[in-house]
From TrEMBL:
Belongs to the GPN-loop GTPase family. Keywords: ATP-binding, GTP-binding, Hydrolase, Nucleotide-binding. The keyword RNA-binding does not apply. One of its GO terms (molecular function) is ATP binding. It comes from Streptomyces chryseus. This is ATP-binding protein.
Length: 203
């Protein structure tokens, strides 16, 4: 194989280099059931080219994996991206795999996480119950983002809160996982929620 100097990898792309003004970094986890849009969200909001671990779904997974019409790939380890909230504050985003057989990887992804976004598809609310339960068991603060799929039913916030058995203080917001601005708003909501929690006196 003919390797030319232009083929040699010399380091990260200039747009991927961490800003010199950054003084603090926070780890955020994007969680949710299979096919709710986690990979899309990380890719939409990340200011660097995201790392993904998607693999093609095959017939070997029939009867083992979840299945959605039209979905041909699934995350098997994690998605990773980065976003600058300000000149000083950087968020590292980790998207979890949605297939339940890969959930054992969540433990490592949760380590050191300041908070989480739970991405919800209202067409399949039931896939979110165990996800939320795992966060509550680990004591990870989270906000809920309703991914607005075009054909998904819309429900009042109070009805969703009841269905998901969420306490009144947990924020619920709409989100278009394809839109950078919408995803950024979700992350800012999480930051404000975490800040509010930090101001509460110890129990």
């Amino acid at each position: 194989m003919d390797f030319r100097s232009s083929d040699t990898i010399t380091g990260p792309r200039s747009e991927d280099v961490l800003p010199t003004t950054a003084t603090a970094a926070v780890k955020i986890v994007i969680v949710g059931g299979f096919g709710v849009g986690k990979t899309t969200m990380v890719g939409s909001v990340s200011e660097i080219r995201p790392l993904t671990t998607e693999e093609t779904m095959t017939e070997a997974g029939v009867g083992v994996d979840d299945n959605l019409e039209g979905k041909t790939a699934t995350t098997v380890a994690m998605d990773f991206g980065r976003i600058s909230i300000s000149d000083e504050l950087i968020l590292y985003l980790f998207g979890t795999p949605g297939q339940e057989r890969f959930w054992f990887l969540w433990n490592g992804l949760f380590e050191g996480a300041l908070g989480a976004v739970v991405l919800i598809d209202t067409r399949r609310l039931e896939v979110s119950f165990d996800v939320i339960g795992r966060l509550e068991e680990r004591g990870v603060p989270f906000v809920v983002a309703i991914n607005t799929f075009p054909d998904a039913p819309r429900h009042p916030v109070d009805a969703l809160r009841t269905a998901l058995d969420l306490p009144p203080e947990v924020p619920i917001v709409d989100c278009d996982a394809r839109g950078r601005g919408s995803c950024r708003d979700v992350l800012l909501t999480l930051m404000r929620y975490l800040h509010a929690l930090s101001l509460q006196p110890p129990a």
